[in-house]
Structures are given as structure tokens and as C-alpha cells.
Amino acid sequence: MKVLVSLLVVFIFATFIGAESAGFLPAWEGIRAADLARHIAVIASDEYEGREPGTAGEQKTLRYLEDAFRKAGAGPGFGDTYLQPVPLVELKRAGPPDFAVTGGKDVGAFVFGTDFVASAGRPLEKIALEDLPVVFAGYGATAKEFAWDDYASEDLRGAAVILLRGEPGAREDTTLFRGRALTRHGLPATKYDNAARHGGRAAIVIHTDASAGYPWTVLTSGGGGTTQNFLEDTTGEPKLDMVVHVSAPAARRMLAAVSLDLDTLIARAGRRGFRTMTTPLKASMSFSARTRRITSHNVVARIEGRAAPDECVIYTGHWDHVGRNDSLPGDKIFNGAVDNATGTAALLELAQAFAALPVKPRRTVYFVATTAEEKGLLGSEFLARHPLKPLEQTVAVLNLDALFPFGSFNAMTVTGFGSSELEDVMATAAARIGRVLQDDSSPEAGAYYRSDHYPFAKRGVPALFAVGNPRDDQAAADTVMTARFNHYLANGYHKVDDEYDAATWDLSGVEGDVRIYFETGLRIADSKVYPNWRVGNEFRALRDEMRKR
């Protein structure tokens, strides 16, 4: 039955105005690598200072995007303006935080940046937690659908909770949860909120490169972690006061002080029936900061639908990056060229392509350059809480984040592959340029939950996030492409070397990405069909209930 439904969806979307009629091909061909490069070169330049929200870099970015959307032919998308205000509370660290552990053998001092990094769990200027009992909570998951609860009815009031990254299924037993593929229960924010609901005051998160999906240096280098942002319109749910991330060597030293072994604890936490365990450790930590309230902005442009303007398709891509770190020697600016000047430039090209169509699509199409993605998806979370159209009339969200300038590709890697019928539409668009869709080869990293489509997905709106890649069965043979990917992940991602380089960048593959996204969105926007999540997907019931209203 599921196969028949998918075939029907493919057939209905395939009837879209013959795909080649009504000026589609000229608009599609108008998406060009040279134009993408022109936008990227500006947005990722030093003049924009790393595009951190609430800085002069934001103001320059907003002016550029407003002007570029206007020139592209897309009108204001938030009433009569392009700017949707996003009220934030900014927390700027005042001096390094402290973290100490006692109990058992002397563990020595924990050095900020080398052994630990820390952040506030909520916008408090002063945090001082003394001698909190330390409880090991494994993965910190409460997942009824998987019959799993690390806490059960445990009351951890006043405790510091040690948490592992990821989920049990990503380790040895692939029958747990969804195996290697991360679910929402493996998200850091889900773990923190769960610990807070059980009475925890702080989290001590053990970082390993394998479980986090990125190296420890990402935590220590990305803008120095000097600022945090929180949405001002909070939900009122319990929150931790503080979160401390410790490196694997520091965690081993901490646990060894009370004769505990990290590998043994990981193995124990990965077995069904695990429950939190109190340790002899006591943790103290402090954090001081200055707060200010700022208004950042999502930049919203619109192509009005010709027949069903109250239904919409939304393209998202975050304009922000992590700013600058003046304590660094030499280069201090995190330009964010790949992440995400590429996706921001793609929004501008998409707007121009839609504006070039002689017949506009049935449904309204929005192009939203979101703020504060690097601060925790805050711009898109605000957008989902205050949607442009009611969520039940938001047909799809198509997200662009970190497109790779490494040459041509023959595949689109889809995070959360198999989640929704949107993939059937994208498969048709990808086939036009000889690409196939494929699963994420590292689902344990949870990329599906770490970008701007997710705030909509978790509310039930079908959402898609894909990026051009080599086909998995051919990637190993393409040593040059593999080397470029690996070099970026090691030296560019959230580092000062993520810069635009006209001499070495090849945007032919990114051009293909954007053309695929254009056709995908146009097919959806010009249809009467509401694509849904696949049967069995965790968000399907939310969408079905929403569409009954």
C-alpha cells in the first residue's frame, strides 16, 4: 500500500505543467554558478565580520539581502517589509567559567578550553553551583516509543547529571532505537530538557569525536563561545542552569577518581534496563555573564501564489555565522563561506528563478534567510512559533545549509532519508541532471535535527534537507573529492578558514543543488497535493491531526 501511495504522489507531481512549459527551463537555466559566487564573495567577506546576530555584521547582511531580494523580483514577505523581528536575549560571558570535581582521588584542575567548555542553560547573569551530587544518567533518554527510560521515576533534584552524546543504538546494539540513525532523543537540547524535568540543575556532557560527529576543537574554536542567545518568548518549561562539556581525557580522569571506567559505563548505559546511578563525586561550577536584549531578524521574501496564496512552500537557509574572536592570533573572522553563505546565496538565486516565471505557481513561495541558526536554530524556531501562514497550510519546508563547492556531483544526500513524500518530488528533479537520492552515510551525527527545517518538522510540517554529494558507491574512488571534504571538515567547519576562494572553489555542483531545489519547490508549489510524512514516521500523526482542522 505504501508503494502505491508513493507512486500516486510521483504521478501527480509529475504532471506539473509538463515541467518544460510556462518558462520553467529559462528560469531553471538562469540559476548559475557565477551568480552564486558573486553573492557568496560579498556575504563571506571580512567586511561582514562573520555575520553574528546583534552586530554590525548583521546590519550589513540585512541590507545586502533586502536589496538582493528586491532586485531578484521577490517582494517583502513579512507584511510590507522584508524583516521579521526576532527578539533575543544575548548572554556575553564575563571571564572564563569554573568547573571543579571532588570525591575520591584528587582529580586536579580542569582547564577551560582544554578540558571543558561551559554555557548557561538559561539567560542568567550569575550562576554558582556548589557541591552538586553527580549522577550518571547514561544517554539521558526517556523514549516511550522505544520502551526506554534512563530515569524511570528517579528524582534528581539538585543534581549534576553526567550525559553521553548520542543514543544506545549508535553503539554496539543496532536493534536499539533506530540503530545508527539518531532520533530526537539523541539531541543535546532534548537531553538537557529531560534532565531538567527530572530535577537536574546542571549537565556534564562527555564529548567524544565519534559520538558528537565533530572534533573537540569545534567546541573550543568556534567564536570562543563568548556569547549565547536565547529566544525572549520562552515556553516556560524547566531548564538547566548550566551545561559543561568535558573532553574524553578529562572525563576519564574525573571518573577514575572514584574507580569508574568510561568504557564500562558506556557499555552499561547501552543495555536495556539501565537506570541512573549516583556517584561519590561532587561538582561545583560557576558562570558569569552580561545580558542585553537585542532584536535580530529573519529576512523574508515572497512570490505570491496565483490561485492558493494562503498555502505556502518555504525555503530556508541561515544567514548567520559565529562572528569573530578577537583573542585569536592572526585571522579573527569566522567568514562562514560554506556554512552558510552558500545556502544564503541559493535563496537569492531561487527567488530570482521564481520571479522569472511568466506564470507564478498556485501557492505562495517564501524565501527565509534565518538568524541565529548557529545559536541553536533560534530564528527558525521563532518562525515556526510565529508562522507566515498557519502550519496546517504550510505545505513543505525546503532547507539549504552548507552546500559544497567541490565540483560536480551525481547524488543528493538526504538527511533523514525515507522520512517524507517530498523525497519523491526531489528524486524527479534530481534525475533531470543525472543525480540519485541517497541516505546520509553518517546518520549517527543527527544532521536532520541540526538545521533550520527541524523546528517545522517537529511540529508536523513535512521538511526536507539535502545536499549534493558523490554517490556512496563511487565516493571512495574519487580521492580528490574525498580529500576536499575531509579537509573542510578538519580545517574549515566553524573555523576561520571557511573562506571563499575564487581560485579553488568549483560551484558547478552547487549550481545543480539549487536547480534541483528550484524544481522541487516549484512542483510542490504548483500542485494541489499536500505531501505527507511516510507511514510510520514519528511526525506523521502530528501532520494528520493538523490537517483535520
Can you walk through the features of this model?
The protein is an alpha/beta fold. 31% of the residues lie in helices and 23% in strands. It has 17 helices and 18 strands. The strands form two sheets. It has a 16-stranded mixed beta sheet that branches. Strands 6-7 form a two-stranded antiparallel sheet. Strand 8, helix 5 and strand 9 form a beta-alpha-beta unit. Helix 3 packs across helix 10 and helix 10 packs across helix 16. The longest helix has 20 residues. The N terminus is likely disordered.
Which helices and strands occur, and which strands form pairs?
Blueprint: H1 2-14, H2 24-29, H3 33-43, H4 56-72, E1 75-76, E2 83-93, E3 98-102, E4 116-120, E5 126-136, E6 142-143, E7 148-149, E8 160-164, H5 188-197, E9 202-207, H6 209-212, H7 216-221, E10 227-231, E11 242-247, H8 248-256, H9 262-269, E12 277-303, E13 308-318, H10 337-356, E14 363-370, H11 378-385, E15 394-399, E16 411-414, H12 422-431, E17 436-439, H13 454-457, E18 463-469, H14 472-475, H15 479-491, H16 508-525, H17 540-548
Parallel strand pairs: 5-8, 8-9, 9-11, 13-14, 13-15, 15-18, 16-17
Antiparallel strand pairs: 1-12, 2-10, 2-12, 3-12, 4-11, 5-12, 6-7, 12-14, 16-18
Helix pairs in contact: 3-10, 4-10, 10-16, 12-16
